[in-house]
Structures are given as C-alpha cells and as structure tokens.
C-alpha cells in the first residue's frame, strides 16, 4: 500500500492489544442480531461468532515470518505464499476461478494471482460477483534486511481467508457469488503498469465478467491502530462514488470497539506540492480504471509502514478480529442487499463526508497528541481545526481552493500522526 493515511501506533496501545486475543470473541462485539436477507436462518452475528482470531494470527505468523523473506514478486518465498493461499482455498472447498486452476500466472510480469469462487445461492443472481481482495506480495529483502510486510498486507490476506473459510461453510447465506482474490505484484512495479497483479487480472476479464462485478472490496493495511485518539478507526474509502454504495456502507451493523470512518478518496490520494495531482494508493485503482465499482478499506499507514519493523508482533489482533466482523457483514451486504450500481460517478465527492472525515482525523490527533509532536505542528493543527469547522458551517459547495485546503489539512494531520517530529508535516 502506498497511502498517505499515516500515523503512529502507541506502545501502550500495542501492549494492551496484545493481551486481547481470546477466540472466538465476536459474539460480545456484535450489537445486532439482524438476519441475513436470504432464505437461510443463520444471522450475521452467528457467522461473526465463528471468526477465529487465532487462525488469522497463524496466517500472519506463517506468511510474514522471517523464512518468507518478504515475499518478493517472483521469488521462491512468493511462490510459497501463493501455494499456502491456494491450499487454504482448497481446504475450504472453494472452486478454482481460472478454469481448473486457482492460480493465474502474471504473464506480463512475474508472480501469480490466486482466486477461488463461492457460488451464489440465488439462480437469478449468482452470475454477479462480489470480489473480496488483498495483495500478498511485499518488498522482499533490501540492503540485507527482511521486510516482513505483516500489516502490508498479510493482515488483509488473513481477513480474506477467514471470510472465505466461514462463508464456504454457509453457501446459502450469499445470493451473489463471492470471488476471493489474492493479488501479486502490488508493491512493485510502481505506477500504472500491466505488470501489477490486479491490473493483469482486470485485463483478462471478459466484457461480461466486468459487467457482472457488483462490487470489488479492496483491503490494504488492516491491523493498525494508528491514531490513539481515534481508537478502532477503519477508513472506508470510495463510497462517495455511488448512492447505492453509500447506502450499503451506512447500513452496516455497529460493532463494539470498531469505528468505520467513511472518507473520500481524494483525502488520501492528494499529492503534496501538486494541487492537480492525485495518486492511487492500492489495487482498487485497477478496477476504477475499468469502471468497476469498488470500496477500499484500510486502518492506515503506521510508523512501521515499509520498514523491517512491520512484523507479526506489531499487529493489533483484537482489531483484526473486529475488522473481520465488519468485512463479513459488508460482504454479505454486497452479496444480498446492494442494488446493482448503475450510478457510479468517478468524479463524485461528498463534501460533508470529507469535512467530517478531516475533522475526525484532526480531533483524534489533537485529543491525544503523539508525545514528540512539534509545538508548531500542534499550533497549525489547532488552526486547521478552526478552518475545518468553518468549512462545516458552509451551506455552499467549497471552492476549488477550499477543497485543496481541506486535502492539505488531511495530508498534514496524517503526517503529524505518523511522523510527529518532522517539520515537513507543516509544509504539505
Ligand atoms: Zn499494501
């Protein structure tokens, strides 16, 4: 992942969260018992109860261990990660997606995507697909150091696998079919290139297949607690592009300790010093370019992002469990409730949501500032809080300059959370 959702994970939060990993524990996290909208009697809460945090932890420790040497694209360890995911899909009884094969070698580059299908239970809708996706590659070894990539992005692979395992046991709970995909080659190469696993996957879809994708759910960095003053935050990006999608996001069942935070993509894709530029931060972009609806989930970029310290021990497994509950609910909602997205608008943005999102980020950092935050940074963030509050009171749309200011504030607060001692955070 290459986002600007930056922030710092406090040592106290890390120590606290490492204690909270009993399984299964979802029953007491889920407030509602709303039944899934199918003929089956099993509820979302009952499915969430089956979430096994220990299984997810094991995936992380297996796939992000030093032996996996950072799962570089095309490496032996990358191939071992691919085989691991394939074996899981087989064990769950899911069907191969590429003909008789679970693997799709990336012929334009290196590595392979892995995908498996859970057929939908409704004969009139099973041709439609909900994609639950993550990427499994990471940076490999650099200057003799292993980059384990536990949060980036085995956290999301573990969530995808656990959702696949549970839903495969209850195929009648989904009307649309669910396609679980682990992409290769997200980290490298940079930019828009067909060597990316997700880009290659999209390029190989038929026109019918593209049109039948109801929603792509992308995940990157899913087990961080990056702003201590904003506990349980899970950023939900892209819902501003469709009213149906926005309704799906707003309709999710509350989960104790989890705070889904819808925020516009432009709040994280903004580029410093280049007012007109926006930079995609993960695999969803391959789908966006093909006009396929998507939503992107992330807990944001921690201080360990793209460092050798992104290890299994640094993750927040209780949060991973809550995110699994959210992902299950979202996947079921997309499979059963979501109206076919026919109102997708690339350029759409939701001013109210963006202002509220920036206000939440600011509030989170200012309520519990990082210990080593600079005085001038703190002062600037307080000023920014006043600006954002003023934006919130406007009844008219923000001007181009005001929106640009909002995006800059979003970048600054993310920078301040992750790199509180850096003066440059004041200059973005
Ligand atoms: Zn990533």
């Amino acid at each position: 992942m290459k986002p600007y959702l930056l922030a710092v994970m406090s040592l106290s939060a890390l120590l606290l969260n490492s204690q909270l990993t009993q399984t299964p524990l979802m029953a007491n996290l889920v407030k509602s018992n709303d039944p899934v909208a199918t003929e089956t009697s099993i509820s979302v809460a009952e499915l969430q109860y089956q979430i096994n945090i220990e299984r997810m932890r094991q995936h992380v420790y297996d796939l992000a261990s030093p032996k996996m040497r950072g799962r570089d694209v095309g490496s032996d360890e990358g191939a071992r990660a691919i085989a691991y995911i394939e074996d899981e899909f087989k064990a769950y009884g899911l069907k191969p997606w590429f003909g008789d094969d679970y693997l799709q070698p990336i012929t334009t580059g290196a590595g392979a995507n892995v995908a498996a299908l859970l057929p939908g239970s409704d004969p009139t809708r099973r041709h439609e697909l909900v994609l639950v996706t993550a990427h499994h590659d990471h940076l490999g070894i650099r200057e003799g150091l292993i980059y384990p990539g536990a949060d980036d992005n085995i956290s999301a692979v573990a969530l995808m696998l656990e959702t696949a395992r549970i839903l495969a046991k209850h195929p009648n709970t989904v009307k649309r079919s669910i396609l679980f995909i682990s992409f290769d080659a997200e980290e490298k190469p940079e930019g828009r290139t067909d060597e990316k696993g997700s880009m290659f996957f999209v390029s190989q879809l038929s026109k019918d297949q593209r049109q039948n994708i109801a929603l792509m759910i992308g995940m990157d960095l899913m087990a961080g607690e990056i702003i201590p003053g904003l506990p349980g935050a899970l950023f939900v990006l892209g819902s501003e592009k469709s009213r149906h999608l926005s309704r799906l996001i707003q309709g999710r069942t509350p989960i104790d300790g989890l705070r889904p935070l819808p925020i516009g993509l432009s709040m994280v894709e903004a580029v410093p010093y280049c007012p007109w530029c926006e930079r995609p931060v993960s695999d969803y972009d391959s789908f966006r370019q093909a006009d396929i609806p998507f939503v992107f989930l992330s807990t944001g970029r921690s201080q360990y992002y793209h460092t050798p310290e992104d290890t299994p021990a640094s993750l927040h497994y209780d949060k991973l469990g809550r995110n699994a509950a959210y992902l299950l609910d979202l996947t079921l909602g997309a499979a059963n409730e979501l109206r076919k997205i026919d109102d997708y608008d690339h350029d759409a943005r939701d001013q109210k949501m963006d202002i509220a999102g920036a206000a939440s980020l600011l509030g989170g950092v200012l309520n519990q500032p990082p210990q080593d935050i600079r005085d001038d940074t703190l002062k600037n963030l307080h000023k920014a809080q006043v600006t954002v509050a003023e934006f919130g009171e406007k009844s008219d749309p923000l001007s181009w300059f005001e929106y640009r200011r909002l995006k800059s504030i979003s970048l600054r607060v993310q920078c301040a959370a992750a790199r509180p001692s850096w003066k440059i955070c004041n200059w973005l």
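Confidence is low (pLDDT under 50) at residues 2-39. The chain has two domains: 11-347, 352-427.
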